[in-house]
Design brief:
about 65% helix, four-stranded mixed sheet, Zincin-like, mainly alpha, 2 domains, disordered N terminus
Length: about 325
Amino acid sequence: MEDLQSLPIPLGEQMRKNRYRTAYLFLIFPVMILGLTYLGLLASVFFAGDSSLGHLSPIDLANEMMSTVGFWVIVAVFIYSLISYFVGSKMLLAFAGAKPIKKSDYPELFRVVENVSIAAGLPKTPDIYVINDPSLNAFATGRDPLHATVAISQGLLDTLDKAELEGVMAHEIGHILNRDIRVMMLAVTLVGAIEMIGEILIRMRGRSEKSNNPLPLIGILFLTVGVLIGVLTRLAISREREYLADITSAHLTSNPRALASALKKIAGDARIEVLDGKSSMAGLCIADPTASGHKYHAVAFSGDNKKPRSGIVAFWRNTWSTHPPIEDRINRLERY
């Protein structure tokens, strides 16, 4: 029997945690955006010198500018995030080269997804896509259980047996059931919005090239501090959601070893080349699809006892990873 740390968390508690995370993202990102905007305005006022202040103190001038600049920055981030939130899933599927399929083309895959969806109590079977790639990977995306999609690579379909396929699809449906697809979509779109607005602000120097233009400095803060905090938040959420989806898969199928067996196969070739350098989308996959992730998987299953499992090196790598160590996930499932 698994230890208490790895026992299934009640579904209601998982949903509640993800609602808190959603509220956290809605709260902390606007606060961070406004804070960085104000800091950039204040720094620009101080660097500009006394000639631009007039009768106002630096803080008063920054406060006055904040009422205009801060408002439009928030509006721009909100509009970009809103558009990305509603069309982001289709963009991600298109970027991965995933195509919708018919039940007549993949009857076994459809049966597996339908059966797991019924077992999970989803109100609707997710749309099913196949990625025409020989790699071994899969992911789920969407806003909620009514607007959800699961995608699997052709290579993984050809490699897994029925029990393993069921375990993988239960893992992806676990993301939908736990509502963490919405949390990840929000995290991805908000970080993307901060990065895009930062790049726009840096380019808004104006024809006069005045040194007291605060927008480039605000853009630099967005692309450094803002993106750093946003990415670390997204990565932390991404790592935890994989453990939860593994547990959910084991609970839905009552066969944790099938998913463990599938993960061992996936670790052999999870790389999807078009996702190299795209950590935002890489976090949606069942295993890290990037070149660095593929290299780590090769080392993890090489039998090399010198690979770091603890200490500063392991901590640093895990902090910047989209997924928890795949060997740890397999060990938890095998002990379940």
